[in-house]
Design a protein that fits this description.
Elements (H helix, E strand, L loop, with lengths): L1 H7 L2 H4 L7 H29 L16 E5 L3 E3 L2 E3 L4 E6 L5 E6 L4 E5 L3 E2 L5 H46 L1
Antiparallel strand pairs: 1-4, 1-7, 2-3, 4-5, 5-6
InterPro entries: Desmoplakin_SH3, Plakin, SH3-like_dom_sf
Protein name: Desmoplakin SH3 domain-containing protein
Pfam families: SH3_10
Length: 169
């Protein structure tokens, strides 16, 4: 997207429109709109994919809110028994090998960290997506402003050419 903004701000795009050919202007408009639609499509794909990203960084440090984890396998030891797919709350994960958890039954225990996974989605992904959406809004605004300017220049030039041709006859 940065390359698009740089391109929109380049001297060739900022230069005054000198063409009289409507096809050239149409292709120019189509190119800019296609770029914006491509970025929107990429953002939609990223939004869909972001729902499946596991927040791996939470394995090292807990967020400020309670965090759920899901058991990957069946696990049983002393006071705790987890079936595959059971959810637990992570109370402490400062030890990379063993995590302190609380089961849905209210039992607190330590289990090997390897038997748990923190399920998607990662909130930081959604924050990044929101930033990208804001960038697309800025890109669209800049593109619309530039296209309006190009259209006005093109139409002004076409009108002045038409008037000069009419005075010849």
């Amino acid at each position: 997207m940065l390359s698009f903004l740089l391109w929109m701000d380049s001297s060739t795009v900022r230069a005054q429109v000198k063409t009289q050919d409507p096809d050239v202007m149409f292709k120019h408009f189509r190119l800019i709109i296609k770029q914006l639609l491509d970025y929107q499509g990429q953002l939609d794909l990223l939004t869909d994919r972001s729902r499946d990203i596991h927040p791996v960084h939470y394995r090292k440090e807990l967020p400020e809110w309670p965090l759920k984890a899901r058991a990957l396998v069946q696990y049983q030891h002393k006071h705790v028994s987890l079936a595959k797919g059971d959810f637990v709350m992570i109370l402490e994960n400062s030890d990379a090998e063993r995590w302190k958890i609380k089961t849905l039954d209210g039992i607190e225990s330590e289990v090997p960290a390897i038997v748990l996974v923190i399920p998607p989605a990662d909130p930081s992904c959604f924050q990044q997506i929101d930033k990208l959406r804001e960038q697309i809004k800025v890109n669209s605004f800049i593109a619309a402003k530039r296209l309006r300017s190009h259209l006005i220049q093109f139409l002004s030039s076409a009108i002045s050419q038409t008037q000069s041709k009419d005075t010849l006859f």
